[in-house]
Amino acid sequence: RTRDLSGATYTHWEKRLGAIGISVVELTGDVTPDARALARARVLLTTPEKWDAVSRWWRVRAYVRAVRLVVLDEVHLLGTDRGAVLEMIVSRMRHAQLSRARDDDRDDALHAPPSTSTRAPRPLARLVGLSTALANARDVADWLGVPREGLYNFRPSVRPVPVEVHVQGYPGRHYCPRMATMNRPIFQAIREHVPDGAPTLVFVASRRQTRLTALDLISLVATEGGTSGFTTPAAVERELVPAAATVADAALRHALPYGVGLHHAGLSEHDRETVERLFGSGAVRVLVSTATLAWGVNFPARLVIVKGTEFFDAKQGRYVDFPITDVLQMIGRAGRPQFDTRAIAVVMCHEPKKDFYRKFLYEPFPVESALASVLHDHVAAEIAAGSITTVADAAEFLSYTYLFRRMAANPNYYGCDAGREGVPAFLADLIERTVVDLDDAGLVVRDHGLAA
Predict the structure, then answer these.
(1) Degrees to nearest 5, angle at CA 342 with 293 and 235
(2) What is the DSSP code string of 87-136?
(3) Looking at the predicted structure, is the pLDDT value of residue 418 above 90?
(4) d(CA 331, CA 191)
(5) What is the DSSP string of 178-211?
(6) How far apart are CA 252 and CA 233, in angstroms?
(7) What is the torsional sign of CA 403, 408, 412, 417?
(8) Is residue 347 within 8 Å of residue 167, measured between CB atoms?
(9) Mean pLDDT value of segment 218-237
(10) How far, in Å, CA of 171 to CA of 174, rounded?
(11) Count of beta carbons in the 10 Å neighbourhood of residue 158
C-alpha cells in the first residue's frame, strides 16, 4: 500500500524468490526500472497509484498486457480516499480484457470465417483480493469476478495471533487536553500488559503528538526511578547513546536513551532508519508513531496503543474520525505471526464513541465506493489514454466499476433518491454532467467524440 512497505517487501521477496530463479522488480514513485527490466520480471511489486498511472496505457505497454495474476492487498480500502485508485485498476483490467476480446473477434471476422478461425482465446488475468472481514463481501467478490467457491470471508476475530482488545473512553470536549489525559494511562498500559519489556507501538495523530507523548512517557518512567527508561542498561550504553549522538531531531535524540523512539514523516531518512533499526533489534521498546506507520514497515509489537481516534483535517478545518479501516490496521500491527504469539491492543477514544468502537471493531463492516467524488479525474485520465472516446464508452467503462454495482444495491447512499429503478437514469446523468464539467474546464473537447 505504501512505498515504505513496498521497499521492505521487495527486499524480502527478492531474497526469497531470487534464490529459486524468480526475478522480482519494484515499481513505485521512487523506483522506475527500464522497460526491458519490467518485461523480464516474473513478479512486479508496486503501489496502486503507480500501477494506475502505468496501466492506463495498457494498449502500448506489453508488460501490462502480459500480467496474468494480480494480488490486491487491503481491498477494504475501497471506501477510503485512496480506494478510487484501487477501483480504477480493477475496472480498467476487466474493461481491457473485454476490449481485447472484441479486437480479436474483429480481426477474425476480417481475415477468416468464424468457423475456420483457430485463434486460442486470450488468457484472463486472475484477481486475488485480500481484505479484512466485510459485511458485503459477496458484492466485492462479484465485482472482482470471483466465483462463489473462491470467496472466504472470516470473522474479524479469526487471525493467526488472537488479539485482546481494550476500548477506553475519555471525557473532555477539547482535543488537546483530552490527549494529554491519555499519557498516564498509556504508561500504565505498558506496565500492565508488557511488564517483560515486549515491544510497544503507540499510534498518534500528528508529529506534535509523537513528541508530546514521548516526552510525557519519559517523565513518567523517570518518576519511578528507572534510570534506563523502558529498556536495559546494556542497550542504553551499547546502542542507544551512540545512536542518539548521530540523529538530527532534538526530540528523538532526547528520547532514545530512555528506550523510546519517535517516527513520523518529518524525520530525516537517517533518523527514520536509525529508529526503525533500534526498534527492530529491541533496544527501543516503545515507538511513538503517526498513524501512517500502520500502512508501512512491518514492525514487531506485542502491544499496540491507539492514542485517540481523531485527526485534524486541514481541508475541513476541524478534527475528524479516522476511518474504521485505519483503526483496524493499527490494531492489526499487534502480534504479527512471524514475531510473536500474543497480541494486545488498547484503543483510547472520546467517551461518546466508546460503544461505537466496541461494536465495529468486532463486526464486519460494509464497503462502499469512493469513486463518485473523484470521477472527473479518472474519466479525464481514461479519455487522455484513449480508452474512452465517446459518452457511450464512458457509460460502458463505468459499468465495470464497484460504484456501478453498489449504486444498484444501495442507491440512497450515492444520492439516487429514485431507488433502484432510477439508477440507470441517475448514472446517465452523472456521466453527462462529468463530461460537461470537463468540457467547460477545457480539459476535453466534445465534437463527434471525446479527446483530452
Answers:
(1) 65
(2) HHHHHHHHHHHHHHHHHHHHHHHHHS-GGG--PPPPPPPEEEE--S-BTT
(3) no
(4) 19
(5) HHHHTHHHHHHHHHHH-TT---EEEEESSHHHHH
(6) 18
(7) positive
(8) yes
(9) 82
(10) 9
(11) 9
In this prediction, residues 64-74 reach a mean pLDDT of 90
d(CA 354, CA 168): 7
Taking the C-alpha atoms of 418, 422, 427 and 430 in order, what is their torsion angle to the nearest 10 degrees?
Answer: -40
Grid cell at residue 357: 468502537
HEC letters along 6-44: HHHHHHHHHHHHHCCCCCEEEECCCCCCCHHHHHHCCEE
Question: From the DSSP assignment, how many helices (H) and strands (E) are in the chain?
Answer: 19, 14
Residue spans of beta strands (DSSP E) within 340-444 = 343-350
Rounded CA gap, 360 and 346, in Å?
Answer: 15
DSSP state of 260: E
Q: What is the residue type of 259?
A: G
Contact 201, 331 (CB under 8 A): no
Tell me, what amino acid is at 297? Answer: V
Nearest to 176 by CA among 204, 195, 148: 204
Of 116, 142, 134, 286, nearest in space to 216 by CA:
286
Residue type, 403: L
Note the pLDDT tens digit of each residue in 299-310. 779 999 999 999
pLDDT in tens, 336-394: 777 788 899 999 999 999 999 888 777 787 899 999 999 999 999 999 988 888 888 89
- Burial (CB count within 10 angstroms: exposed 0-12, middle 13-18, buried 19+), residue 104: middle
Distance CA 311, CA 208 (A): 12
Q: With beta carbons less than 8 A apart as the criterion, state whether 245 and 254 touch.
A: no
Tell me the C-alpha distance between 27 and 10, whole Å.
10
pLDDT of 11-52, one tens digit each?
Answer: 888 888 888 999 999 988 888 888 888 888 999 999 899 999
Taking the alpha carbons of 146, 337, 12, 74 in that order, is the dihedral positive or negative? positive
